Amino acid sequence: MSSVETKEATDSQWWKEAVVYQIYPKSFNDADGDGVGDLRGIERRVDYLDELGVDAVWLCPVYESPQADNGYDISDYRSIHPAYGDMDDWRRLLDALHERDIRLVMDLVVNHTSKEHEWFQRSRRRDGEYEDYYIWRDGSPDEPPNNWESCFGGPAWTYDDEREQWYLHLFDENQPDLNWRNPAVRDSVYEMMEWWLSQGIDGFRMDVINLISKAEDLPDGEPGAGQTGTEHFFNGPNIHEYLREMRDRVLSDDSLLTIGETPGVGVDDAKEYVGSDGSGLSMVFQFEHVTFDHDGHKWNAGNWSLAEFKEVLSKWQTGLEDDGWNSVYLNNHDQPRMVSRFGDDGDYRRESAKLLGTLTHTLQGTPFIYQGEEIGMTNASFASPDDLRDVESLNFIEESLERSDVQSYEDVRDAIEYVGRDNARTPMQWSDDPNAGFTEGEPWIQCNSNYETVNVERARADEDSVLHYYRDLIELRDERDVLVYGEFELLLPDHPAVFAYTRTLGDERGLVVLNFESEPVEFVVPADVALDGLELAIANADAPTVPSDSFELGPYEARVYLTPTQHT
Ligand code: NOJ
Q: Which first-to-last residue range defines the signal peptide (predicted)?
């Protein structure tokens, strides 16, 4: 067996060769004109996804929900939120995707439910078996049981007047945390997962799954710059026991794709989730490369260097190379638009969007494309807090004003426009029709004002668009094992402008060179990189078909050189 063959995925590991497209249903496409995206709207766009060439869709929550956190607050796991449609619409979407060989991964949100969930309603009434479904503690109404903070700011506890006890919520007060120590809770979750699997889905993206196990007795956390208490609930004491149980009980079909969203995991922690002796997840979403510039708090982000960025990503590339698998993403519904954060959303929007796409499709791991990334969508402008919808941003503004940290919205506007989650949630830009062709009604959140120039219709008609480039990238990755399985080696780690690396798989070699600056830069290929046989495979500018020892890269220029295919 050649080294290529030994590295290739078994059928059950189809996801190693896949590209996944993430859909945020509220903002993707509205078929019924109520201003909110819906399942029929997505169904109308499955041919678009097919043309793009993606292999799987991750659908953010579409379940019944009061929408305090846009569906990450679920009140009924087995029904569809009416604004999105119903189970028949969902089945039609599943069929439409499967007919095109696109798999469907559903969001699994089981660290918490909505307050409106029947389980919580019964729990607050101490109704029989539901009494211990959540994490309740005694205490006087003005003194929370410990000093843990919510991820969205403020205490992680709310006093419930009905039950006369505090309940824990690591997110919004409308999202009470389930008590995973209670076996009945775990049984209920597994039954629900089995039910979704029986509907024919292909896997789960597991929301903050490494937060489900809390330290016994819930001790106080060490106050610091970030959220207090995380050392007691990130990768908590029973996390792997629960995940192994989940695997044994419901995830025994090893062709299912399971992606754990795991804030705060390092490479060694990740191996415990995705390594051969781990608890069985296919991959995790780690956060280090999107938080390395947080300076204690996400709202302080922005001061980063390319050298640090390369260091973090390379650590993950090499760290999971022999045991485990990476996910590769630069943005999603919780992150700002990547081109505004890591590229240049002004003069070099097109070039830098292509450059970042080149990065995500040529690193080792499964690339995730967030809706709109493939046309180079950018962060938006939010002139007033009235334009914002996200509970996290609104809480931050309210608290900052209350604490008198700031005097007005203008004082936090830059931070909101840089990292606020609503940047990713403005409607998908389909055309230059009113509301970007997203809805015939009033959109639930404003469109980005650049939709007349940045939209799918225009990108389709322009051979040089980000969209066409993404199709080529996906096709290239599909054809070339070296991009999927090749060993990664970072070149010039300290170079302040160029991100360059090689990929090697047996005789197949690749060289990727990316200029992260808006100025031209001279790139000298390190002497130990073999250039013989390399040919240009994709680039975002005119480039020579074979590399020389040194060459000049234009602003945000990206080039991928590969040896010709060795396969027969
Ligand atoms: C992570 C999700 O991606 C985010 O959107 C949500 O607010 C939190 N988990 C809470 O469910």
A: none
Average pLDDT, whole number, for the chain? 96
Domain identity same for 246 and 127: no
Is there a single domain that holds both residue 109 and residue 122?
A: no
152 lines ligand 1 (CB under 6 A): no
Whether the predicted pLDDT of 325 surpasses 70 = yes
> What pLDDT does 225 receive?
81
> What distances in angstroms separate CA 41 from CA 35, 44, 78, 86, 251, one per listed residue?
11, 5, 21, 13, 30
Residues 367 and 516 in one domain: no
pLDDT beyond 90 at 406:
yes
Cα 69 to ligand 1 centre (Å): 8
pLDDT value, residue 162: 97
Burial class of residue 384, CB neighbours in 10 A (0-12, 13-18, 19+): exposed
**What are 510's strand-pairing partners?**
503, 562
Domain range spanning residue 159?
118-168
Take residue 210 and report the two structure tokens written for it: 């490494």
Based on the fold, state whether residues 226 and 302 are members of the same structural domain.
yes
Tokens standing for residue 305 = 């260097």
Q: In this predicted structure, what is the pLDDT of residue 298?
A: 93
Answer whether 107 contacts ligand 1 (Cβ < 6 A): no
To test the pocket of ligand 1, the residue of 27, 75, 171, 370 to mutate (highest count of ligand atoms within 8 Å of its CB) is 171
- Would you tell me how many other CB atoms lie within 10 Å of the CB of residue 408? 11
Report whether pLDDT(6) > 50.
no
109 in contact with ligand 1, CB cutoff 6 A: yes
362-396 pLDDT per residue, tens = 999 999 999 999 999 999 999 999 999 999 999 99
| Contact by Cβ (8 Å): 77, 185 | no
What phi and psi, each to the nearest 5 degrees, are found at residue 283? -165, 165
- Alpha-carbon distance values, 491 to 19, 89, 496 (Å): 25, 49, 12
| Ligand 1 and 348: CB distance under 6 A | no
Residue of the nearest CA to atom 8 in ligand 1?
72
Same domain, 370 and 344: yes
Pairwise CA distance, residues 73 & 61, whole Å: 9
Domain annotation covers residue 436: no
Q: State the average pLDDT over residues 215-241.
A: 96
Active site residue 216: no
464 catalytic residue (yes or no): no
Indicate if ligand 1 lies below 6 Å from the C-beta of 207. yes
Q: Which of 62, 69, 423 to mutate to test the pocket of ligand 1 (most atoms within 8 A of CB)?
A: 69
